[in-house]
Specification:
This protein has 367 residues and is α/β, with parallel strands linked by helices. 38% of the residues lie in helices and 13% in strands. The protein has a seven-stranded mixed beta sheet with strand order 1-9-8-5-4-2-3, sandwiched between helices. Strands 7-6-10 form a three-stranded antiparallel beta sheet, with no helix packed on it. It has a two-stranded antiparallel ribbon with strand order 11-12.
Length: 367
Amino acid sequence: MTSDAFIPPAKPIIGDEERAAVDRVMQSGMIAQGPEVAAFEAEFADAMVGGRATVAVNSGTSGLHLGLLAAGIGPGDEVIVPSFTFAATGNSVALTGATPVFVDIEPEQFTLDPAAVEAAVTPRTRGIMPVHLYGHPARMRELVAISEKHGVQLFEDAAQAHAAELDGRRVGTFGAFAMFSLYPTKNMTSGEGGMVSCETPELVRRVKLLRNQGMERQYENELVGFNNRMTDIHAAIGRVQLTKVGAWTAQRQANAAFLDANLRGVVVPPVAEGAVHVYHQYTVRVRDDRDGFVRALREEHNVGSGVYYPIPNHRLPSLAPYAPGLDLPETERAAAEVVSLPVHPSLSEGDLERIVTAVNAVAGAGA
């Protein structure tokens, strides 16, 4: 690899152990949901959410959808969500027949603003679903208090936040359910998939029914369900990745610390008191000409980056009908300013130095 080779914004790590695990499952002849999935669920629960029961599904979006359905969310209900997130957050609420209610974010960690949540509660509010965006926990102290005050359920979109913590407590253990994504570019992957951590045995059972055509025993369908199962092939990959994600997270945090200490001309991501950030993304703010900044990094320095997310959910053609005339100023500002720089564990010291040199040069030149 030459010193000026392209530095990608993300890089999934799949090695010999993952390939061997897949081959083992293929040779066993048990390819669909089976013992590998059950083992992955138990191991993920112990490693990520303090033993809280988890249910494996075929995608993160499925996890949100089934979690909401299992929690009783449906037509006539409202669920408060951020607009500054991937569309799956709002989509999952809409897919239940409920209404996603988009509210603004706080400007530090780009997560739900508790004051905005409080103001959005109505008699139809049945849930609040923060996103632990970029790997930083949402403001769960305040959100837990609001949910308890109003008697509404709290859910967690932890798609990007494997092993993130607040006040010594893992994300995924605050709400009635939480979803972790296992998409290839997440901090760990199963190739594709999701994991749902559940607060109660009843919720576990309902998610399991919903993922498997509504049946616990074959041909004894109890409710109308889906085919959202994870395969043993995917679970085998996930089990291997689970043994590595701790070291990868530590490397992400070390990479982020280097960037924090050396970047100039951009606003680096602050970490809240009591929070453990796992840096799924290292997201800075660029005050002037963000798009020019991204282009210059790529064209002049061969450094990749990402913009997550340029169009807020409430302005997407698919979700805008739920939010006519809505004004979310912090969301709009973030959408215009954010850039996610490479922070993944495959970066070398030379890569990190090149990223710093590139960002400081482009920021200093005003993009």
